[in-house]
Amino acid sequence: MANKIKKIGVLTSGGDAPGMNAAIRAVVRACTHYNIECIGIYEGYRGLIENWVVPLDARSVANTINKGGTFLRTARCMEFMEKAGRKIAYNTLITNNIDALVVIGGDGSFRGALKLNEEFNFPVAGVPGTIDNDINGTDFTIGYDTALNTVIEAVDKIRDTASSHNRLFLVEVMGRDAGDIAINSGIGAGAEEILIPERSDLGIERLINSLDASQKSGKTSSIIIVAEGKTGMSVFEMREYLNKHRPDYDVRVTVLGHTQRGGSPSCRDRVIATKLSVGAVDALMNGRTNIMSAIQNNKQVIVDLTVALSKDRKINEELLRVAHISSL
Ligand code: ADP
Ligand code: F6P
Predict the structure, then answer these.
(1) pTM for the full predicted model
(2) What are phi and psi for residue 156, nearest 5 degrees?
(3) How far, in Å, CA of 178 to CA of 166, rounded?
(4) CATH of the domain at 52
(5) What is the pLDDT at residue 256?
(6) At 187, is the secondary structure helix, strand, or coil?
(7) Residue 325: inside a domain, yes or no?
(8) Is the beta carbon of 169 within 6 A of some atom in ligand 1?
């Protein structure tokens, strides 16, 4: 069936992630490939409400693949959460003759895209972009690999000073509801312990037992990776607790924070971003909607946005086992 799409809009939404520029670039170049127009929307859904748009052609995205952040900028837009806001956004799409929309973002952004389709029958495709790697149906999200590399580079440095001073470091990493960054950076950086939101039973008492066992085995310093949020205690509360109950440990805290969201994307993130984005445009051109372009077993595939939004994701127990064994 001939496809009527002549112009695709692209936006980045929610938390930024390294590789979002590579994703925008690939959407634009895929539009060039299909000989259709591409239009960038600034600041996520806010740009749709405010009509902040810019035509993009193949040359306008030159020298962007290596840049962190997103040149279209991103936002969290409360107005789009309401139907009235989405109606304004829809009108902007129509006014600009946009036939389909690629949304590069996390699950919140996909929820918004799905609503746009449900309410106005507008074709949408999602490209998973978030450092958290917390989207169901894809093995990887854009930005996750770069964030992991940022974390291990920082922890390697912390390890130098930790071992020089026989100290215990609590290193907080991002991942609002997901322990992926913590587990994988913890294994990669050789952390003694990893605390994640999915397993609140991996709490402070168990941590102390584990630290004691490490000490007995001859370790003189330790790195504990703590995922932010929902681990029961903040890193600062943990430090207080340890200072009070185990003053023999010399505890320091490092919060890596937004350093994890910046920087030039890794090669892996650039490649993933490019594959995912070309796949999203292919899908729209083939008449698909309400889909997410995903990576499964190293292949680009298409899954329903509803799959992407389901809360089925489970923590990889095998990785936890490997983390435990490798830290003995
Ligand atoms: P992320 O996409 O990284 O998960 P957010 O959860 O902050 O980030 O969502 C980004 C934006 O997507 C929100 O600011 C809002 O504009 C839109 N959005 C999120 N959830 C919904 C929803 N349930 N309905 C409509 N829009 C939503
Ligand atoms: O979702 C990506 C993320 O970086 C989370 O890991 C973190 O909890 C959150 O965004 C931080 O959001 P903000 O930049 O609004 O502080």
Answers:
(1) 0.96
(2) -55, -40
(3) 30
(4) 3.40.50.450
(5) 98
(6) helix
(7) no
(8) no
Instruction: Tell how far the Cα of 222 is from the centroid of ligand 2, in angstroms.
Output: 26
Q: Is 132 in the active site?
A: yes
Q: Which domain holds residue 106?
A: 2-143+265-308
* Ligand showing the shortest atom-to-Cα distance for residue 48: 1
Indicate the pairing of strand 299-304 with strand 291-296: antiparallel
Look over the chain and give the mean of its residue pLDDT values, rounded to a whole number. 95
CA gap 229, 91 in Å, rounded: 38
Ligand nearest to the CA of 77: 1
Q: Which of 243, 261, 279 lies at the terminal end of a domain, its last residue?
A: 261
> Two tokens at 43?
């600041």
For ligand 2, whether the C-beta of 184 sits within 6 Å is no
pLDDT of residue 6: 98
Query: Residue 129: CB within 6 Å of ligand 2?
Result: no
Would you state the pLDDT for residue 201? 67
Atom of ligand 1 nearest to the CA of 106: 2
Please, which residues bridge with residue 101 across strands? 9, 124
313-322, long-range: CB < 8 A, 24+ apart: 313/134, 313/135, 313/136, 313/178, 314/198, 315/179, 315/183, 315/196, 315/198, 315/199, 316/183, 319/183, 319/184, 319/187, 320/183, 320/194, 320/199, 322/187
Distance 74 CA to ligand 1 centre (A): 11
Q: How far apart are CA 220 and CA 310, in angstroms?
A: 43
Q: How many domains does the chain have?
A: 2
The whole-angstrom separation of Cα 109 and Cα 86 is: 13
- Catalytic pick from 99, 107, 132, 180? 132
Which atom, in ligand 1's list, is nearest to the CA of 110?
A: 2
Instruction: Residue 60: count other Cβ atoms within 10 Å of its Cβ.
Output: 15
Residue 314: Cβ-neighbour burial (10 angstroms; 0-12, 13-18, 19+):
exposed
